[in-house]
């Protein structure tokens, strides 16, 4: 980061953004702004509804509200700066702002992977171990699992960011992306980045691939259990509790495998990376609240109450994670 005389050669980076004209920039700005507002509104609404409706005080909805909280900050780490750059002729970001954006983007992203994995485990217990579910998924266990996702996300990226901080940036300061992603940032570093790239691959394998395998195994067991349910109504009800999560997981892992589980991208492939990462940072967080509500009758009923003003009685903080209500799935 510093030259021999103690002066840092790069104080800011230039984000190239999207190769579009000024008129297209305005249209793209409006589209992303609308999606961002929908994302914030939808995720905030889920958090409020889960916290205010006593019927949703279960582990499944506790983790869903945690996911919505993560989605809010995951998009906020990237989208506001991207929107500002779309309307500006000076698309720069300060050196430490860039590294902070890189850190928070991966912190929230990795934590989201962990929370989705925990949600898979929760659904496995609810469907495959219904008699033991409430004794295993206690309030304390749920809180520890939620805290563990944050700790896991932080530990996964902390060493990586420290190593990036030690790199010299003394030549080009042009980042071929609309935010500070790890690949484009390493491309403009002067020093040897092989160790960081290797650690990044290890993190991708350990976190992304292992979480993916755990989720797939969980859903294989879940589907096998659902198929053994004698009534078609019971099978439909059981599958409906998992379908939304399965859709979200499929979209997320598809994008992650493309961006981080393949050989290091070349400059020519960064354009495709931008499109896929736009899906991951803007579109998916916007769709998630709709995916989780459209197929979920309990959330839809809670939303109707909230919008009509009947469900806006805020409980004590201690009641937010009070999971005394048996999962409706176990009544099937």
Automatic annotation (TrEMBL):
Could you tell me which InterPro entries the record lists for this protein? GPCR_Rhodpsn, GPCR_Rhodpsn_7TM, Olfact_rcpt, Olfact_rcpt_6C-like
Localization: Cell membrane
Membrane spanning residue stretches:
26-49, 61-79, 99-121, 141-163, 201-227, 239-261
State the Pfam families in the record. 7tm_4
Region forming the signal peptide: none
Identify this protein by name: Olfactory receptor
Q: Name one GO molecular function term.
A: olfactory receptor activity
The answer, when asked if Glycoprotein is one of the entry's keywords, is: yes
Q: Where is the G-protein coupled receptors family 1 profile domain?
A: 42-292
Q: Does the keyword Transmembrane helix apply?
A: yes
PANTHER family referenced in this protein's UniProt entry, alphabetically: OLFACTORY RECEPTOR (PTHR26454), OLFACTORY RECEPTOR 6X1 (PTHR26454:SF30)
Q: Which UniProt keywords apply?
A: Cell membrane, G-protein coupled receptor, Glycoprotein, Membrane, Olfaction, Receptor, Sensory transduction, Transducer, Transmembrane, Transmembrane helix
Family membership noted in the UniProt record: Belongs to the G-protein coupled receptor 1 family.
Q: Which PROSITE patterns match?
A: G_PROTEIN_RECEP_F1_1, G_PROTEIN_RECEP_F1_2
What is the protein's major site of localization?
membrane
């Amino acid at each position: 980061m510093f030259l021999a005389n103690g002066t840092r050669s790069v104080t800011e980076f230039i984000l190239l953004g999207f190769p579009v004209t000024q008129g297209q920039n305005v249209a793209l700005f409006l589209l992303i702004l609308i999606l961002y507002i929908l994302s914030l509104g939808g995720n905030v609404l889920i958090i409020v509804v889960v916290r205010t409706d006593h019927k949703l005080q279960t582990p499944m909805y506790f983790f869903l509200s945690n996911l919505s909280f993560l989605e809010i900050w995951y998009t906020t780490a990237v989208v506001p700066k991207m929107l500002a750059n779309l309307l500006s002729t000076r698309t720069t970001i300060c050196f430490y702002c860039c590294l902070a954006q890189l850190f928070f983007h991966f912190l929230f992203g990795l934590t989201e992977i962990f929370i989705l994995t925990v949600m898979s485990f929760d659904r496995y217990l609810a469907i495959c171990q219904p008699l033991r579910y409430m004794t295993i998924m206690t309030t304390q266990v749920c809180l520890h699992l939620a805290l563990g996702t944050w700790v896991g996300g932080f530990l996964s990226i902390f060493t990586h960011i420290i190593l990036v901080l030690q790199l010299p940036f003394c030549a080009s300061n042009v980042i071929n992306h609309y935010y500070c992603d790890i690949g484009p940032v390493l491309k403009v570093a002067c020093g040897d980045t092989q160790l960081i790239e290797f650690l990044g691959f290890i993190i991708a394998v350990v976190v992304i691939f292992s979480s993916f395998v755990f989720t797939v195994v969980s859903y294989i067991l879940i589907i096998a259990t659902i198929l053994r349910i004698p009534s078609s109504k019971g099978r439909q009800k059981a599958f409906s509790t998992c379908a939304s999560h399965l859709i979200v997981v499929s979209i997320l892992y598809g994008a992650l495998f493309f961006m981080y589980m393949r050989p290091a991208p070349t400059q020519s492939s960064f354009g495709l990376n931008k499109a896929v990462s736009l899906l991951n940072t803007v579109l998916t967080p916007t769709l998630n609240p709709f995916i989780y509500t459209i197929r979920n009758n309990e959330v839809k009923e809670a939303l109707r109450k909230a919008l009509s003003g009947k469900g806006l009685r805020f409980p004590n903080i201690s009641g937010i994670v009070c999971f005394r209500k048996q999962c409706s799935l176990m009544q099937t």
